C-alpha cells in the first residue's frame, strides 16, 4: 500500500512541475501576448520591424540592375481593304474586292558613336473582279542594312557603309495574258553596296545619304527574260532564224553615285507624311541619266487603329523598257517611260 502511495505522490509532483514550466498544457491556446508583459510585446514588434528594414536595405544594396539594351525597334503593320458589290445595277459595272498589306520593320543598334540600322519593307496587294481571277496590284520586297560611325559626339553625320536588296515575292503578268510572266523573284533583283556619309536626325526622322562610290548589281535569274534583254542585261545572240547562239547575261553591274533621302513629318495630330527618295547615276554609261525611285505616303488617322492612306510611287530607269500593244495586237518595247503608281485606301494600322 505504501508503494502505491509513494508512486501517486511522484506522479502528482511531476504533473505539477510540468504544468508550471508549460502553462498552456492546462489552458486553451491563447496568443503569445497573453503570457508576456506589455513592454515585451512592444519590443518584439520593434525588433521585427527593424529586421524587415535591415532586409530591405540589404536588398537595395545587393540588387542587380536591369540589363541595358542598346537596341530600339519599330514595327508598322497596315492592311487596306476595298469592296464593291452590285446587284441589279442598271448603270453597269463589275463587283470587285481588293486588299493591300504593308509591313515595315526596323531594328537599330546605337551605342556611343556606332549606329547600325536594319530595315525590312514588304508590300503585297491583290484584286479580284467578277469573272476574273486574282490579279496582283502591288509586290515589293526590300532589305536595308546601314552601319555608321559618327564623326563626333556633337555631330549628326556618320561615316557609313550601306547595303540594300530589292525584288518581289511572286510572278507578275501583263494581264490578261497569263502564259508568260514579265517578272519573277530575282528577275529583277537589285543589290546596292556603297560607302559614303549619312546625316541622321532621330528627333524628326530625317535622313540624308550620299555615296560617291556605289556598286549596283541587277539580277535577272529567269533565262527567258535574260535572253530577251529584260531590265538592262545583255540579251542573247540569235541567228537569222531566231535560234540562240549564246544565251543572255543574267547579271549586270554598274558603278556610280547614290543619293537617298527619307523624311517623316507629322503635319497635324492625325496627319503624317512620309517621303522616300533614291537617285542613282552610272559613271561609265550615260552619266547624268538618273534612275529615280520616289515614294510619298500620307496617312490620315481616324483613331488609334483605323487610317486612310494616299500613296504615290514614281520610278524611272533608263534600262527598263515599257511594253505596249501595237496595231497588230503584239507586245513591243516602247522604250523607257516614267512609271507611276497611285494608291488610295482605308484600313488598319498597327504600330508596336
Mean residue pLDDT? 82
What CATH architecture label of the largest domain applies?
Answer: Beta Barrel
Helix tally equals 3
Listing every helix as H and every strand as E from the N terminus to the C terminus, the arrangement reads HHEEEEEEEEEHEEEEEEEEE
Please identify the top-level CATH class of the largest domain: Mainly Beta
Ends distance:
95 Å
Question: Structural class, judged by helices and strands?
Answer: mainly beta
Low-confidence stretches: 11-15, 17-42
Question: What do we call the CATH topology of the largest domain?
Answer: Outer membrane phospholipase (ompla), Chain C
| Shape category | flat
What is the strand arrangement across the widest sheet? 1-2-3-4-5-8-9-12-13-14-15-18
Number of domains: 2
Share of helical residues: 10-25%
Strand percentage: over 45%
* Largest sheet, strands/sense/barrel: 12 strands, antiparallel, barrel
Taking Cα atoms only, what radius of gyration do you get, to the nearest Å? 38 Å
Number of distinct beta strands: 18
Give a structural overview.
It is a single chain. This protein is mainly β. Helix content is 14%, strand content 51%. The protein contains three helices and 18 strands. The chain has helices at residues 2-21, 38-62, 223-227, and strands at 71-84, 96-111, 114-129, 134-150, 157-167, 172-173, 181-183, 189-201, 206-219, 237-238, 244-246, 251-266, 271-282, 291-301, 306-316, 323-325, 331-333, 339-351. Strands 1-2-3-4-5-8-9-12-13-14-15-18 form a twelve-stranded antiparallel beta barrel. Strands 6-7 form a two-stranded antiparallel sheet. The chain has a two-stranded antiparallel sheet with strand order 10-11. A hairpin with a 4-residue loop joins strand 14 (291-301) and strand 15.
